[in-house]
Design goal:
Strand content: 25-35%
CATH topology: Rossmann fold
Distance between the termini: 93 Å
CATH class: Alpha Beta
Oligomer: single chain
Structural class: alpha/beta
Shape: elongated
Length: 198
């Protein structure tokens, strides 16, 4: 009998294993959202969005919060429904389409033979949330893809207070979406200014 595992203990161990597997909490998925605009009816200017670069610490499916100055909190159950850079590209393209009243949007990389009038590159330097606010810092460039001429290059830092002073995942995703709208508004204003000057 020595070295044998009694059948009753096998059943107890299997029961505990199945109970443990069945009680794990489900994952929560979040996406960034664009501002709602009336459907654009123009096709100028043609806008190309991308590439979008994000810091290495954000290249993951999990939501990452910077609660302390140099400490990141990675949440195992709160996940992005798409790669963050893809979500930012999608939202900025929709926002710029609405702000500039154009349906002529392209995603990087585009066909060099059909280059857009304006290209928009975004290098995300920081995207963080803590208990009080959400913040985005981005270096961005508006340029003419046909000849590479720079129209405007800037670093923008934008902040948004979080409601109730709590960084709940749905509040963070909503705040990031609003910050991307503000960034899109700044970029769209510079494109309009350049158009008016021509």
């Amino acid at each position: 009998m020595r070295g044998k595992f009694p059948p009753m203990l096998w059943l107890l161990a299997l029961s505990l294993l199945l109970t443990g597997c069945g009680s794990s909490p489900p994952n929560n998925y979040y996406v960034l959202s664009a501002q709602e605009f009336p459907i654009a009816n123009g096709d100028t200017p043609a806008i190309g969005v991308g590439p979008i670069e994000v810091p290495e610490y954000l290249i993951r499916q999990n939501l990452v919060y910077n609660h302390d100055e140099n400490t990141l909190h990675i949440f195992s159950l709160d996940l992005w429904g798409e790669p963050l850079e893809d979500g930012i590209q999608r939202v900025m393209a929709l926002n710029l389409s609405g702000l500039l009243h154009t349906q002529n949007m392209r995603f990087f990389p585009w066909n060099p033979q059909r280059a857009p009038d304006y290209g928009v590159k975004v290098n995300l330097l920081q995207l963080d949330a803590n208990e009080n606010e959400a913040m985005i810092k981005a270096e961005w460039l508006v340029y003419r893809p046909t000849n590479g001429e720079s129209v405007k290059r800037r670093i923008s830092q934008l902040k948004l207070p979080l409601p109730s002073g709590a960084s709940e995942p749905e509040q963070v995703a909503e705040a990031y979406s609003k910050l991307l709208l503000q960034l899109s508004e700044i970029i769209a204003a510079d494109i309009k200014e350049d158009q008016a000057a021509q």
